[in-house]
Amino acid sequence: MNLKDLRINAKRLQSTLEESAKIGGTANGGITRLTLTDEDKKMRDLFVKWLKEINLEVTIDEMGNIFGRRSGKNDQLTPVLSGSHLDTQPKGGRFDGIFGVLGALEVMRTLHENHIGTERPLIIVDWTNEEGSRFAPAMMSSGVWCGGLKRDWIYGRTDVNGKTFLSELERIGYRGKVPAQSFPLHAYYELHIEQGPILEREKKIIGAPKGILCLHWYDIYLEGEANQVGPTPMEGRHDALCAAAEMILKVNALPSKMGGNMVATVGEIQNGPNSRNIVPDKVHFTVDIRSWDDEYAIRAWEDLKQDFVDIAKRRGCPIRIEETWRVKHAEFDSKLHERVIDVSKNLGYSALKMVSGAGHDAGYLNQIAPAAMIFVPSINGRSHVEVEKTTYEDCAAGANVLLHCLLETANELG
Ligand code: GLV
Ligand code: MN
Ligand code: MN
Asked: Is the pTM of this model over 0.90?
């Protein structure tokens, strides 16, 4: 067969995605499969079984990252890596991350059944905890692997119930022995749903992001004075939740105050004691700021931080601010980026250059190797929700683009 005519098996890709959607599947068609839960373990076990079925050499590292390696004709050449993540948000979608791993698996299956070798080794990867919902920050295990985050700091991170990342990683049996350290790579590709409305609006099938916005996360802790709500006069209260409410509106107003080109969000809050008849005295909330311009995002934060301090002072609610995590904006390798466009066009798919507002493991990988991403449309631009949807036809198109990008890249000798 002429290599140019090779295509992935669209039906098999669909049924593999559907198998995954049963693990942690929700009533409305999404998935709740938070990292290092029993559901995550079940999905990992199935993924490892699928890797072994096509004779990939499976390695699990000390962050629980799972690699499946396929030898090249010349194993001295640096490998090409591709993957994403199998964990989800609470009531998340069935495509985010998962499509990137199972799309790469479909490519590996296609090469396997057609007995097609590549010059360079090909490796598929599932990165642990890309979502950062249960344990912050996001992309933590690709971050450690690429040297951007410290392993022991990550091991000690806790979820809302006080369980550590390390204890949960050990509990599900996925603390491997191999150090979580990058090895030389020729290239990294990550296939993903767009998670935004642009491809659908522009009627394009494939998106080629030139890069990813920077991502900055902060944790805010406020203290107030708890009291019985009935007898306590309104004046003189130290209501931590009211202080947080004022701050949250400042976050929402920040992008327009700064003149645009950024987004800012409070997505998580814990209120204590969380009783309708007690004045709240303990609040924790998160802040997420993203922009293409890292310095601009930091200037915005400095402005916001001053507002937080002023509000906390005026309301008599002591504040503690943790600058939890920053990952720089990523600008992908131009050659790989162009290749995504060229391969798409050769396969007959319309393609668009764009920017990724969502964070991806590719952001860290880009710090150590040439990296690129392939996007497919998200229906109504919805993601991180149960109704997240991409047509299986578009999934097949994306996987075919990945197949040919991987073939071209893994057959490069120089
Ligand atoms: C990753 O899911 C992100 O928050 O963009
Ligand atoms: Mn993702
Ligand atoms: Mn996500």
From this structure: yes
Phi, then psi, of 30 in degrees rounded to 5: -100, -160
Name the strand (E) or helix (H) holding 383.
none
Spatial separation of the C-alpha atoms in residues 87 and 133, rounded to whole Å:
10
Q: Ligand 1: residues whose CB is within 6 Å? A: 131, 138, 358-359
CA 275 / ligand 2 centre spacing (Å) = 35
What's the token pair of residue 95?
């495509």
Q: Mark the ranges of the chain whose per-residue pLDDT is less than 50.
A: none
Q: Which atom of ligand 1 is nearest to the CA of 384?
A: 2
The pLDDT assigned to 1 comes to 79
At residue 66, the pLDDT reads: 99
Q: Spell 323-340 as b/e; 16+ CB within 10 A means b.
A: eebbbbbbebbeebbebb
Which one of 131, 142, 288, 378 would you pick to mutate in the ligand 1 pocket, going by the greatest count of ligand atoms within 8 A of its CB?
131
Q: Is the distance from CB of 44 to CB of 86 less than 8 angstroms? A: yes
- The per-residue pLDDT for 414 is 86
The letter for the amino acid at 105 is: L
